[in-house]
Amino acid sequence: MESHSVPVASAPGPRPRVWTVFVAFVVMFGLLVTGSVIVNHIATGIEAAKAGVDPSDSVAQAALAEKVEALPWPTVVLVMMVGTVALSLALLGGRLSPQPLRERLRLTAGVPLPAWAWLTAAVGCFAVGQSLESLAVLTGAWSWTGSLKGFEAASQGPLGTFALLLFFGSPVAGTAEELFFRGYVQTRLVERWGPKAGVVGAATLFGLLHLDPIHGPITLVVALFLGWLAVHTGSVRLPIFVHILNNGTSFLLGRYAPPSSEYPASVHTALLCVSALLVVGAVVLLRRIPEAPKPEAAAMLAGA
Prior knowledge:
Blueprint (H helix, E strand, L loop, with lengths): L18 H33 L6 H12 L2 H25 L4 H4 L10 H25 L7 H9 L3 H35 L1 H15 L5 H19 L3 H20 L8 H22 L18
Helix pairs in contact: 1-2, 1-3, 3-6, 3-7, 5-9, 5-10, 5-11, 6-10, 7-8, 7-10, 8-9, 9-10
């Protein structure tokens, strides 16, 4: 009799670990919250000493708190901390992975991108943020934000302070945050949960990090766009470029353009409509780029 070999299904490999990226996020969150409290305490102490505020005077303490919120240098220090911590954790996590660093953080080239894709992605990202900002102003929710007002104050600060904000808030923070959230965190979540859940999970963590009722949701939606770019192109290079350009443009507008809250409702209505159309157009155009193949999940070691 003729024998037939029966194919044996290969056993599935170990599922990628996700607890490591959540531990890294908790470490980042804890360091930044602690740093924020320390910086605020130092700034309050300096201003209280200058003004001779009585600690028992609640009215003076409230006025002092508002003055500290408007100081530019605490915001710049926190931006510097965010970039430093995010970059350090991304590189540490990448080094601990059994995968090569460039592959683990998705720093490889990905799919070939035409020149127009870079501009289209940048316009689309800025339009996402602008549409949500205009919506917040139109609904009156803009008054709830603290961090965005802090960025406006920092942008209006002395030239040296603004230069530090522009440098650490654009190329440094843009690169560091994308390496951590899209490169380190999202890559692992996508390997474990799939593209949709992975992108949403990383974007949610990114929004939570900002600890602001308005800035947090805005950054979450922007992160969804950046996360989709990373998955679609198979690389964080385009998201890094877009993030840097978006932050730099926002800081420059914050310094040289009137504050967002001063524009009339008609202007914000027009910005909301135009921005929404630009977002849709950008997504339609970018979808014409062939999607990157889904990465195979590698066997993970502890701390990877």
